[in-house]
Amino acid sequence: MDSIKCSSSFLHRTKLNILFSNHAFPKISAPNFKRLFRPISISAKARRSSEAESIAVVEKPLKSERFNVSNGLPSPFGATVRDDGVNFSVYSTNSVSATICLISLSDLRQNKVTEEIQLDPSRNRTGHVWHVFLKGDFKDMLYGYRFDGKFSPEEGHYYDSSNILLDPYAKAIISRDEFGVLGPDENCWPQMASMVPTRDEEFDWEGDMHLKLPQKDLVIYEMHVRGFTRHESSKIEFPGTYQGVAEKLDHLKELGINCIELMPCHEFNELEYYSYNTILGDHRLNFWGYSTIGFFSPMIRYASASSNSFAGRAINEFKILVKEAHKRGIEVIMDVVLNHTAEGNEKGPIFSFRGVDNSVYYMLAPKGEFYNYSGCGNTFNCNHPVVRQFIVDCLRYWVTEMHVDGFRFDLGSIMSRSSSLWDAANVYGVDVEGDLLTTGTPISCPPVIDMISNDPILRGVKLIAEAWDAGGLYQVGMFPHWGIWSEWNGKFRDVVRQFIKGTDGFSGVFAECLCGSPNLYQGGRKPWNSINFICAHDGFTLADLVTYNNKNNLANGEENNDGENHNYSWNCGEEGDFASISVKRLRKRQMRNFFVSLMVSQGVPMIYMGDEYGHTKGGNNNTYCHDNYMNYFRWDKKEEAHSDFFRFCRLLIKFRDECESLGLNDFPTAKRLQWHGLAPEIPNWSETSRFVAFSLVDSVKREIYVAFNTSHLATLVCLPNRPGYRWEPFVDTSKPSPYDCITPDLPERETAMKQYRHFLDANMYPMLSYSSIILLLSPIEDT
To answer: What is the CA radius of gyration of the chain?
Structure first.
């Protein structure tokens, strides 16, 4: 496969000719092929005949050596503790027989089934739902299913009773114990099984409740659970875990963060791309996690202890992380990948959805091919009635049981595409004249988004869409929103990057970004519907954005063909980390300029993990496969930057929080906002203008003045006249730390202020090239 990046904003500017997938997995060497695609089934005592297509009839009562077996109930789906036993329920439309497999932890390690119970369709099936109720000792017990039926890929069916399948509703999935370590016999895909729930002591939430912070007040921090504390400089007992993140939350509190956005924490297989990396001498892994195995299960190998000690440890540790975050006033948003799964295309493994009901869970063409709007081999059939209920059930579970505060939907535009065999009568209850939609056609009122938006539980949480997909659909500013959905504003990123580096023709659209992008969101939405960001996990870090003109992705093993080519970056005159002192100074100034633009814009700012100290990935803009220093937060570097860029970021976030005018609920109007040029109230919106300034009335700070000079030339600015008041500098990105941000407790503050006094007395301010300023209004009698 040419590129195996399976997430987020790659290639969002170019429409891809992706319909059917012939590549779900990376190119790998022959020795690794066997290891990667070893069968994931446990041998059964009896195999079905290849011709068997009729419904199996069980004429004798269901029996078990270990469990008391009865009919069970068709709902709720999944495994549910009830009446001193467990009810198992699973949807499978086209299967003709079902068997539940009980597997102890010890037997799982030995690739054995502890006990199998074949279900009787006359007693254990209601409609398309198989169900059974079991009583017995479920301590350290796991389960899975075998389904029989047609194995006919051209008809969309992959039934094979030799496979033991995961329950799509599994709350915890067990396989390997250690992150990045091969299974038995060096197997990348050892057998997995779902945890059977028990009536253990309930988790003590200590009264924890959702914070329900106003979205306009959020400062979001995108982070990776393992990457945040895996580096040895974190100096914690359990690096790379949920517990590790919980231990380091005070860093985020100090920075001023009140919302973390966790990159995928659903169960995934980090060995999915496992192959030797000749460049770095390690192995390529699925580090980011955008390839889900189970949507209800937290990533087990992010727990501090192996699954041998307690199968539900990851569930409790995730809950502890959420509880500790809430104690510090920090909300938790999950990045959910409800656009595809790790089963890939027809060449991929069969471990759950495909074997349970392939034609229901995936978008299929008439001859069974997989539509590939995700760029990862398959596309989740989001608007199918069963699948959209699955999605709502999943999101509800994470809100009610795990206390998360919201979701960011990776490649969210896929949820607006019509499902396989789209049928208006089936979806809406009546035929729609002219409804001739083909699979995957964008629809204006997608049922799944409608369900989420109007759900009494989900409507009250944060809902953020990545409003594009890998099939060329780009919906920034146009995503179906019901007045509550926000969007990752990719246009904000692209415009701000180009204006700050001094590209002509962007002063006007940059001003739109500062106002919360009303050109995109005015009319039914608010500024806080725009999630503003300069950098995210996809693309350059902030430090690399000002250090590299070109990506440096050779370490990914794809000959530098992967990752985004259009980064709108500028190396400030010299390529790479080794540069002259003057270039390095300019780079720091540009980093400060970017951060100022993010913090003074209306909308919700989001920063990427590590940018607060200037983390570098060496110019690699697609580090999905690296479990190493590229993706590890460097706590030692953070300490080095504590009095430099970290201080600057912390003070800017604090300033934003203090200002009533920087986080408005509505778009600013002329009553509050005035635009300026080099002279007051005379803005320059020409194609060659590289200067933008504005003043903003603020009920706390009186008034603030912000200006950006992205020209290569210095300039002298004439400030708005405010009789009885004087403008005083708060931020000047051209100054070295700590004078880039002048606070009341700054040593030698008065000396620093005197350097500006003669200019300010004349109502003027000198700005160097590539610099930005924030001035505050102060009464003359107070100075």
So the answer is: 28
Q: What is the mean pLDDT of residues 489-511?
A: 98
What is the full DSSP assignment across 549-567? SS---GGGTSTT-SS-S--
Side chain identity, residue 122? S
**Alpha-carbon span 414 to 466, nearest angstrom:** 10
Residue 33 has pLDDT above 60, yes or no: no
Find all residues with CB under 8 Å of 218, minimum gap 6, and list them. 258, 259, 331, 462, 528, 604
Please state, in angstroms and rounded to a whole number, the distance separating the CA atoms of residues 593 and 589: 6
Q: What is the pLDDT of residue 275?
A: 93
What was the pLDDT predicted at 297? Answer: 97
Alpha-carbon distance 758 to 439, whole Å?
68
List the chain domain ranges: 68-195, 216-657, 669-779
pLDDT at 420 over 90: no
Distance of CA 530 to the CA centre of its chain: 16
Q: Please, what is the Cα angle at 292 between 291 and 297, to 5 degrees?
A: 150
Same fold? 68-195, 216-657: no
In whole angstroms, give the CA distance from residue 262 to residue 608.
11
Backbone angles phi, psi at 486, to 5 degrees: -105, 170
Active site residue 657: no
Look at residue 185 in the predicted model and tell me its pLDDT.
84
At 239-295, the pLDDT tens digits run 999 999 999 999 999 999 999 999 999 999 999 989 999 999 999 999 999 999 999
- Quick one: tokens of 483? 């007045």
Q: DSSP letter at 443?
A: -
Per-residue pLDDT, 283: 93
H or E element: which one contains 450? helix 447-454
Out of 43-52, 61-70, 247-256, which region has the weakest mean confidence (pLDDT)? 43-52
Q: How far is CA 687 from CA 503, 593, 711, in A?
A: 10, 21, 13
Q: Is residue 466 annotated as part of the catalytic site, yes or no?
A: yes
In order of 64, 86, 118, the CA distances from 122 in angstroms are 18, 20, 12
Q: At what angle do helices 581-599 and 645-658 cross, to 10 degrees?
A: 20
**Tens digit of pLDDT for each residue in 743-760?**
999 988 888 888 888 999
CATH number of 68-195: 2.60.40.10
Q: Identify the pLDDT of residue 312.
A: 81
Q: What is the pLDDT of residues 716-732, one digit of tens each?
A: 999 999 999 999 999 99
Superfamily covering domain 669-779: Golgi alpha-mannosidase II (2.60.40.1180)
Residues 140, 148, 357, 466: which is the catalytic one? 466
Distance CA 777, CA 161 (A): 74
* CA separation for the pair 414, 432 (Å, rounded): 22
pLDDT at 709: 98
**Residues 530/520, Cβ–Cβ less than 8 Å:** yes
**ω before 729 within 30° of 0 (cis)?**
no
Confirm if 677 and 684 have CB atoms less than 8 A apart.
Answer: yes
What is the pLDDT, as a whole number, of residue 184?
Answer: 84
For domain 216-657, give the CATH number.
3.20.20.80
Instruction: Count how many Cα atoms sit within 13 Å of the Cα of residue 449 in the half-sphere of its side chain.
Output: 26
Q: Which residue has the higher pLDDT, 647 or 366?
A: 647
Dihedral, CA of residue 562, residue 563, residue 568 and residue 571, to nearest 10 = -80
Q: How distant, in Å, are the alpha carbons of 500, 532, 614, 628, 773 from that of 646?
A: 20, 20, 8, 23, 18
Exactly one of 107, 357, 410, 703 is catalytic; which is it?
Answer: 410
Amino acid at position 215, single letter: Q
**What is the distance between the terminal CA atoms of the chain, rounded to a whole angstrom?**
66
Q: For residue 428, what pLDDT band results from cuts at 50, 70 and 90? A: low
H or E segment and range at residue 764: strand 764-767
Q: In this structure, which amino acid lies at residue 11?
A: L
Beta bridge partners of 148: 97
